[in-house]
């Protein structure tokens, strides 16, 4: 008989990131981050990254959903759902407003003490991302972001400050959110949010060098973190998007493999402490990542991660008609529609089986515990006259994904630590800056123009997820 449940102690919860919900962008001495210079976009309308904060522009992250002022109320709602954990990030600019200070900002540190204490009161474990698209803008302007080796030291100071301060409150950490987004190296949002890079003449070369510095920074953080508290679990965090071949044509299959290699290499280095062969050969051939020292090599080996955290939203499909494996410009150029999959209102494919596939792929590749730290459906919600919010589409998406997760755990032997669906409370969308692209179990009264009471209310999915947690995943209906 197949066990119909998740392991004991499974970390059910939800995920957010500081810049998307806290607001209070200048409170308690907080500095300006890259998220603070991004305007509101829309589906098909990219967010503009402005040269600092300019008058007359709409920057939705400045106010977020004012979690800074509402966190007690929000954590109480998470507890009501039965959360075992809560994934958020620490806004780098609350701790080091400019990024290059030697001493941290006490008011910023205090905010997270209070937040983590609040969680722990309810038995909710904080799960913390250190860098979630929140680099201090000053580091971009003054140093060129992670294009500069010096930024490794600033990141390390930030990481160790957090490790020391919260060593008895936080056990689960991740070093960089979705570090592999920048595989899409011609995308200004991806390279800015990951590395603090601006697009230029040779984006691919710049990306490989910056990502290398980030991987060294991550390894150093893991090493230091383990000295501070050997019980820490410090993970990688990737955006797991499998790329499927459009047909059984071997040219499509080779192309898909190549694109997956060019995304996996980030977590390969995190997990193995060394570069995979194909990427190493490519970098050599192209003369990329010229600054790679013997010491880096040692550090990467010494600071490998304890688990692989990942987001999963969708799969993508590629065709060699648009560029074969050896003449690939950017993965995005080879993407085609998958006729077997439906898409969300924002054009993201919906592929629950892809999650089971991914759990198996990642397990085979890394032999490490996995943590699904994001999954969900961005959708428009309608508030009824009586204030209720019926969101069966969200429940349907999550249920189908959890059914596949359950098979991976109970049939395929995958070692899974937990599941934290994205945007457990409505937040500002990272990709579009919209409020109307909602993921939450908890609705927040705020629109794309920033208007609303900020009142919180429970959607139908709130009660569904509460029961999922209560039954430890035995009941998904
Ligand atoms: P939004 C791109 C592709 C997949 C996930 O995304 C991504 C992105 C960046 O937009 O981001 C992750 O809000 C990210 C979160 C983000 C979430 O997915 O664009 O870690 O910050 O909000 C959902 O719908």
Automatic annotation (TrEMBL):
UniProt keyword terms in alphabetical order: Glycosidase, Hydrolase
GO annotation (BP), single: carbohydrate catabolic process
Record has Protease as a keyword: no
GO terms for cellular component: cytosol
Pfam annotation, one family: Glyco_hydro_1
Coiled coil: none
GO molecular function: beta-glucosidase activity
Active site annotation, chain numbering: 374 (nucleophile)
Domain of life: Bacteria
Family membership: Belongs to the glycosyl hydrolase 1 family.
Cited NCBIfam families: PRK09589.1, PRK15014.1
PANTHER family the record matches: ARYL-PHOSPHO-BETA-D-GLUCOSIDASE BGLA, GLYCOSYL HYDROLASE
Protein name: 6-phospho-beta-glucosidase
Gene field: bglB
